[in-house]
Amino acid sequence: MTDIAQEPAGRIPRVSIGMPVYNGERYLAESLDAIVGQTYEDFEIIISDNGSTDRTREICERYASQDDRIRYVRQSENRGGSWNFNEVTRLARASYFKWAADDDLIEPTFLETCVGVLDHAPPDVILCYPKTTLIDAEGDSISDYEDNLDIRERTPAERYRTLLRNYELSNAIFGLFRTDSLRRTRLEGTYNSADVVLFSEIVFVGQIWEIPDRLFKRRWHDGMSVLANPTNQGIAQWFDPKNASVRFMPRTRLFAENIRSIFVIRMPLWQRARCLWTLFAEWGPRYWR
Fold it and tell me: Is the pLDDT of residue 1 over 50?
């Protein structure tokens, strides 16, 4: 069962911000303040709560009552991180879409800058993201981080090679997408490191542009998914609670899903062949040492 706030009336905003959350009371208000305080104001916030048992519902309902741009959706149970990430994408109405985590922060000009870039970029640029600063649990800066995912090559195979060589953290996933282009992918999978496969499908569809300004603050703390779930089985259950009884080889699954992506996204046959070659040439040295 899902408890859904009434569908907002009136014009459709230009940006949909989807925030999947589960027991996020620690930083949720701070993250929402950073979004609500944006200099660019033509957006909606869709919060999908995976049946939180802490004060998440109270915080969300308070913010929704104060700002009619916020739509709060509550699930009756925890259906996993992957399902929740995909659900906010499904509910998005705008032509631009951004995922937002309940513990990260964005600078006040984040949306204004990203919207300006996509408005003037060619249509095959489907994601733009600003540079990242890593912060600690208290919000203090740890270090600047270089994502190195400015991927502007002309062909899918060339973009794929750059991705596989440079991908480390998934910070860029919190940039701004063209919604229709993002929906051409399979979105977030229910297996370990599914972000890698999502980014593969993103570069098969189009380009990624990096913005030189550091407008995104990724919070590194003991409650984040990769640290709170240190085992393969634990992180698999974060993606999908049904994985509790699943035993699998995570690297083999990831390799197989990357192959599947090459055949899911439409591209010329010769480009499929080049992408397959790139996967075998780049994946082996890096992931199967």
Answer: no
